[in-house]
Amino acid sequence: MFGGNMQGMMKKVQKMQKEMKKLQDDLKKRTVEATVGGGVLTLVMNGEKNVESVHIDPSIIDPEDSEMLEDLIVAAVNEANKKVDEMMAQEMSKITGGMHLPGMF
Fold first, then answer.
1. Per the domain annotation, does 56 fall within a domain?
2. Which residue ranges does the record annotate as region Disordered (predicted)?
3. pLDDT 10s digit of each residue in the chain, 105 long?
4. Sheet containing 41-46: order of strands
5. Does the predicted TM-score (pTM) go above 0.85?
């Protein structure tokens, strides 16, 4: 009944799966940068959401106010996470043609 159409569709799905795996591997190597506090704290995160580096402007390090620095770090990590998610979603949409696939980024 479905014959060739089903085979063609399966080949397309397999091709898309291979492309998605390749893209996922590529995205793990990419990095995003999040800068907060007007540039006083910069954080670099890779596509696996591992923090690679943090730069803190020494002028904001105040032993009497560690809470401000803690808040900046949290904000930078959250912003970097958001950027990684956006990067992955954008790249995945190129492969899926904008289809929403449950469980994907």
1. yes
2. 1-24
3. 555 688 888 888 888 888 888 888 888 899 999 999 999 999 999 999 999 999 999 999 999 999 999 999 999 999 999 999 999 888 888 877 755 555 544
4. 31-36, 41-46, 51-56
5. no
